[in-house]
Amino acid sequence: MSNNSDSKKKNKKQSETTLEMVPVFIMGKKYDVPATLTIQKAFEYAGYQLVRGCGCRGGICGACGTVYRFPDSYRIEVGLACQTVVKPNMYISQIPFFPANKAVYDIEELEPTGSTVTALYPEIFKCVGCGTCTRSCPMDIDVMEYISRAIRGDIAGAAELSFDCVMCGLCTARCPSELVQYNIGILTRRLYGRHIAKRAKHLEDAVENVKQKKFDKGIKKLKKMDIDKLKAVYSARETEPQFGPEEWEPENKDYLITE
Amino acid sequence: MAYTPELRKLIKRVEKTRPARVERKKRGEEFPAQSLKEREDILKYHPDFKDEGRSEIRVGPSKGYKISNEIVELLHAKSRVSPDLLDLSNPDYEIDILIIGGGGAGTSAALMARENGAKVIIATKLRHGDANTMMAEGGIQAATKNRKDSPYYHYLDAMGGGHFTNVPELVETLVNDAPLALKWLESLGTMFSKFDDGRLKTMHGGGTSRRRMHYAGDITGAEIMRTIRDEARNHKDDIRVLEFSPAVELIVNEKGHCAGAILYNLETEEYIIVKAKATIIATGGSGRLHMQNFMTTNHYGATADGLIMAYRAGVSLNFLHTVQYHPTGAVFPEQAEGLLITEKFRGAGANIVNIDGEQFVYEREPRDVEASTIIRECKGVGKGVPIPAGKFGVWLDSPMIDILKGKGTIRKEFPGKWILFKRYDIDITKDPMLIYPTLHYQNGGLEINSKCETSLPGLYAGGEVSGGIHGENRLMGNSLLDVTVFGRIAGKAAAGYAKTKFRDGKLTLDHVTKYHKELEKEGVDVGGRVSPMLLPDYSNPEVREKQLTTKYLGTIR
Ligand SMILES: Cc1cc2nc3c(=O)[nH]c(=O)nc-3n(C[C@H](O)[C@H](O)[C@H](O)COP(=O)(O)OP(=O)(O)OC[C@H]3O[C@@H](n4cnc5c(N)ncnc54)[C@H](O)[C@@H]3O)c2cc1C
Ligand code: SF4
Ligand code: SF4
Ligand code: FES
Questions:
Q1: The ligand 3 atom nearest the CA atom of A146
Q2: Which of chain B's residues have a Cβ under 8 Å away from the Cβ of A36?
Q3: Which domains does chain A have, with CATH numbers?
Q4: Exposed end of chain A (fewer CB within 10 Å): N or C?
Q5: What residues make up the domain containing B453?
Q6: If you average pLDDT over residues B300-326, what whole number do you get?
Q7: CB proximity list for B41: less than 8 A, separation 6 or greater
Q8: ipTM at complex level
Q9: Is B299 close to A58, i.e. CB distance below 8 A?
Q10: Does B555 score more than 60 pLDDT?
Q11: Predicted pLDDT of residue A3
């Protein structure tokens, strides 16, 4: 058994057995590829060595934005090449790069308001509400809505709604008003994370406790322990229940801060 | 591709045992965890223990060390550049610090180097952020809740996970700096999942004794990566990023200091010389070498380049005899093969069951133990689920999560995976997923100390490319932490070095010449190979046959 998808061997095997093949048009040129492949693997099957347009191969980095259409259709369709399975007769072109501007700022200094966003990205007012961005988003994000929340000053709402954005740029490539939605999205998320979400007090305390070397003695002891003793201490440590309350505390309070 | 009728039939067996398993979960009853002794036995099923998977390195500072064949092949290869033919006297760039690799470690290093007064170039192979860091889903460990947790327990867990082989100084630094690293990320605006009062949400991961895994939805790594990348882009005068320009060789000057690297522009095919006062290697892992033909979770550029370059320059390797297989990679449908199904599914209550719907493993064993037990169930016990294309897997019973934690939990906590499987006509709130161990993490790497220094003056390393922090087995959530903690340390240390310790001198590639000679002397057959690999080759072999010139030049010339 070889659990491996990408190896060369496997490709060989595939071409030996009879596979259902479908015709696709890579930038207008016809290739027959196995029907089960993603667009990304179809490029490779056709003989391309990808340099651009391929990053994580797992639907999260946004390197592989792709547009396609079918000969009998007026619609332009979009997808991530690594996530979209080929269909017969699709005309495919990747958009691995699309020019976009990014505002430069000091996140520390900014206020989490709509006017911060509109000052950094004044073109946001040009949005005509056409919804093309929403229709273009491979992550099914309501892009137009996060843009309008940003304009309204609902930073938390925009941050939440844009959270799954992989910054593939497909919305930007198609916006008639030339917005760079994903850079607006990350600005709202950083504003939210930095200025709206409450700071974690326990994190602050933990940093302080380390700084005051409150755990050093314990760790020094572990570092010096011979391995059998260390194993015993490890095996004897208490484990917090998986679904217990947040306030759970262990019996043994050594090396913890209790007050 | 939805489940086949055969698989649908088998799902019935899982459904049959589900109610009883849910009841047991509710009562807090778990499948018994393995003792340290049992763990030892089960690990014989781990791919690391297959002797034919490894061979000895025959040259260089770790000569005699047995590691994966795939890495050894790249070490037993010649440089992409011919040392005699290259004129190094007119560098294309001169800079304080060159950082090789624009993932989590490289970007953290750049921000800290800048904060410490250095000008930085990041040279990276793909786009800035196309990296394993982007792909991390589960979370990042740190002992931030000191009423129930502290660096002491974090230290213990990390050591236990690594079979007590970890380098103690490195673990100490990791756990002590963890809260600070998290606070830094919080202050940059990383959207960690929080309670309304600001407390960070935390959960368990494999091998943790306290719930200390912090997360940002199910895209923790992406949220961290895009935040620090955005921050780097806010300092474009100090941090310059060269994309699609991988490093192919380090430069060592006549004083024996690392003094930059040779880059290769993947598009124009030019070689570019960067002279730097200090260099940081942050090239990440090596999953795309597909050790023992395993599928992988890693990004396209994870091809061990940093290991190869630094090794040629004299840096030793450690802990590379172990490779981490993630217990739960998707094996079906084919398009999703190798993709990581985060441990959080198990953390949230999903059982792992065999073809008969029976549990056979505790869901929070350390990764190598969990993976080995799954491999045994398929290969030893024979209770794996057969999958089209002649493979096997076991079930990850995701529907339990919604039953245990309320309808809608999966869609809320795992939106990414829900959408992904929906595209293939599989509803993971109703049907289980098929999984098998997948190549995931390079436990070992370049030897460093707690300041990220390597044995070569002026060369620093941080992140997945380094070895020792995690010993023989990394715990989930400790590597996002590692890249942040040690990336920051490397940046700061390199900036200090550039200011005070760097000694200028003539640039050379003498170490490469020497390495080539040693290969020859040891009679190593390099078989026409050059390394680093830069990108894997997945093209159709039949087409490859007809690409006549690639036989001589390779697909990346
Ligand atoms: C799917 C997945 C899920 C994970 N989940 C978790 C998790 O939940 N928690 C956790 O803690 N860890 C997790 N990990 C592990 C963790 O994400 C990585 O170990 C860590 O992010 C590595 O960071 P890095 O900066 O060292 O390397 P990377 O982030 O991989 O960055 C390396 C960079 O170097 C570039 N590069 C490579 N070669 C060269 C070259 N020759 N020249 C120039 N640049 C080069 C690469 O293209 C890349 O951009 C996960 C990993 C994967 C793959
Ligand atoms: S595509 Fe542009 S103009 Fe249209 S709704 Fe989206 S942001 Fe507004
Ligand atoms: S919002 Fe735009 S950039 Fe983000 S994922 Fe959707 S289409 Fe891509
Ligand atoms: S390659 Fe990363 S999203 Fe497709």
A1: 1
A2: 1, 333-335
A3: 20-94 (3.10.20.30), 107-196 (1.10.1060.10)
A4: C
A5: 93-323+442-508
A6: 97
A7: none
A8: 0.94
A9: yes
A10: no
A11: 45
